[in-house]
Amino acid sequence: MSTHRAPIIDTLTGSFLVSTPRMPDPRFEEQVILVCAHNNEGAMGVAVNKPNPAFSLSEILNGAHLPIPEKKLPPVYVGGPVELESAFILYQSDYQTDYRLEISPTISLSRESRVLEDIAQGRGPEKFLFLLGYTGWGPGQLEQELVSDGWLTVPASDHIIFDTPDEFKWKAAAMQFGIDISTFGDYIGYA
Fold first, then answer.
1. What is the tens place of the pLDDT at every residue in 90-146?
2. Model-wide pTM > 0.90
3. Segments making up each domain of the chain, as ranges
4. Is the domain defined by 15-177 classed in CATH 3.30.540.10?
5. Which of 76, 81, 167 shows the shortest CA–CA distance to 90?
6. Which terminus of the chain, N or C, has fewer Cβ atoms within 10 Å?
């Protein structure tokens, strides 16, 4: 008697999804998504290269009645089209908090308000992104999108997330593996 098990998928947690020029959804054009969770129930990630000029972190801190630190603050990012009113903080894990999702040994994600309070007080993570919204996929949905050439999957890089200017992240994420993403797919099928 054999037992049937659901297929185990390799997790993409901690990887970048880099949209290719073949991406059919214009909302994800030139996006770099950090996959924060991926399992048989679906996937969740945040875009790390799309700042939203309509918001500033200073305004958000002010609205929460928190002090504004002296140091330059990063922009507010659009993490994705789902729950745009939900705030997330993606940060290097040298800072610790109780409620976090460990994405890799060096990167965590949290929705805990204490992280924002610590940032305002100057004792939060040194490197972080403040994001509104996220990107989500149902069971099997991301895997189907990967088959259609909409995404290139590469290992994530802390340097690209936190130290590379936003306008260069899309090309830099692919170029770290020698791939010119702007021409990716131009020659597929013409062997």
1. 999 888 888 889 999 999 999 999 999 999 998 899 999 999 999 999 998 888 888
2. no
3. 15-177
4. no
5. 76
6. N
